[in-house]
Amino acid sequence: MKKLVFGSFMMLILAASCKKSTPTPPAAADKFMTFTAGSSWNYSTTDNNASTTTPYTLTATAVDTSINGKTYHIFQYMDATGSSNEYYNNTDNDYYQYTTLSAQLPPMELKYLNDAAAVGNSWSQPISVTQTVPVIGSLTISANIVSSIAEKGSSLTVNGVTYNNVIKVNSLIQGVTSSSSFVTATVSNQNINSYFAPKIGLIKRDFVLKLDATAFGQAQNVADENTSTVLLSTTVQ
């Protein structure tokens, strides 16, 4: 679930540097994430460009915290480099992660799923960062994360396990703008799809993103990411 955080916005910063009525909540059994302490998920993320694989584990703790008026449950993320806390919330049909997308950006509430939304329904979240850049001065890079329900009720086999009633969410980075005419950022290729199963949550994510930047008339590629994340095993309480 750590890979739920869209690394594309880190690339936006690199570009700057080079430069309805309320739906009825579903029954508990239909929830698309489990918050019970002790539940754990083992994932593996493969970098298809570098041919490297990184395993990590997410474990639900028994601790909650309040952020922006919402109750967030604390999960422990652990990989070979160490551990850190992650924060997740489920309010009615909406699912959020409170996260810092990069060191330069302030924390934000990232809405990554609505389990009651019909196929084709979407939601958009704006994000921006302001930096002081040599020669240019103050520079603001802005964009939108636009997510939509691509499929519902399908089945998907991941690592030999078949999951039913899966929701597929497609996400796009749109409307990338710069406050300076000397710096532009363009997403030339992207394919970001996340798959969620009842009670389990994220079971698979494919993340393809290519971001090109132009500063003072010179173009260069600042992001070329192609990763796949799969759920290896889980112990859900």
What would you say this structure looks like, in words?
With 237 residues, the protein is mainly beta. The chain has one domain: YmcC-like fold (Beta Barrel). The protein is built from one helix and twelve strands. It has a twelve-stranded antiparallel β-sheet with strand order 6-5-4-3-2-1-12-11-10-9-8-7, covered by helices on one side. The protein starts with 7 loop residues before the first helix and ends with a strand. The N terminus is likely disordered.
Q: In total, how many beta strands? A: 12
Indicate the proportion of strand residues: over 45%
Q: Summarize model confidence as the mean pLDDT.
A: 84
> What is the C-alpha radius of gyration, as a whole number of Å?
18 Å
Determine the number of helices (DSSP H or I, runs of at least 4 residues).
1
Produce a short descriptive summary.
The chain contains one helix and twelve strands.
Characteristics:
single chain, 1 helix, 66% strand, mainly beta, 12 strands, twelve-stranded antiparallel β-sheet, 237 residues, YmcC-like fold
Helices and strands in order:
Layout: H1 8-17, E1 40-47, E2 52-67, E3 70-79, E4 82-91, E5 94-99, E6 108-114, E7 122-133, E8 137-158, E9 161-178, E10 183-197, E11 201-215, E12 218-235
Antiparallel strand pairs: 1-2, 1-12, 2-3, 3-4, 4-5, 5-6, 7-8, 8-9, 9-10, 10-11, 11-12
